[in-house]
Amino acid sequence: MAKKYPVQVKVNGKMKSAEVEPRLLLVHLLRDEFDLTGTHIGCDTSQCGACTVMLDGMAVKSCTILAIQADGAEITTVEGLGSREELHPIQQGFWEKHGLQCGFCTPGVMMAVNGLLQENINPSEAEIREALDGVICRCTGYQFIVKAVQHAAELIREQQSQPVSLENVTTRGDVS
């Protein structure tokens, strides 16, 4: 039996820890140890991108990173984007513009798109296609995915342009 090492990561805003063998991949830590099965294993060769997650703010293929390399990192999986009650703009875009078919690649696509939209909330079609270059969808020609990303970017821009409500804010010294 191989020696195990402690790993502590912040996943979707929550601290998690595990004892892992040095050869354990991040994708298996997320799926098998933390039960975050939205991160898919597609090809086992790092070609498909179904396992893409955000690692310290960067979109990465979690099948290419050892779990011990992620020790101390902040990770966001597709489960951390939004909720059923409040979809993230990327999820909303995919829902409204039919950006998925079978859905197997969708979590990886969404996380790759998340990386793009964190850097550029007004990407061109070429920039969207470039960001999707490392994620393979076998069901579609990407047209609906591109439209979904454009819509998500629009939703994010709208959110950022909305004024902050000061309705429930109090000021120092305000005595009622």
Automatic annotation (TrEMBL):
It comes from the Bacteria. Gene3D superfamilies: 3.10.20.30, [2Fe-2S]-binding domain. Keywords: 2Fe-2S, Iron, Iron-sulfur, Metal-binding, Oxidoreductase. InterPro entries: 2Fe-2S-bd, 2Fe-2S-bd_dom_sf, 2Fe-2S_ferredoxin-like_sf, 2Fe-2S_ferredoxin-type, Beta-grasp_dom_sf, Diverse_Oxidoreductases. SUPFAM superfamilies: 2Fe-2S ferredoxin-like (SSF54292), CO dehydrogenase ISP C-domain like (SSF47741). The keyword Oxidoreductase applies. The keyword Metal-binding applies. Residues 5-81 form the 2Fe-2S ferredoxin-type domain. This is (2Fe-2S)-binding protein. It comes from Neobacillus paridis.
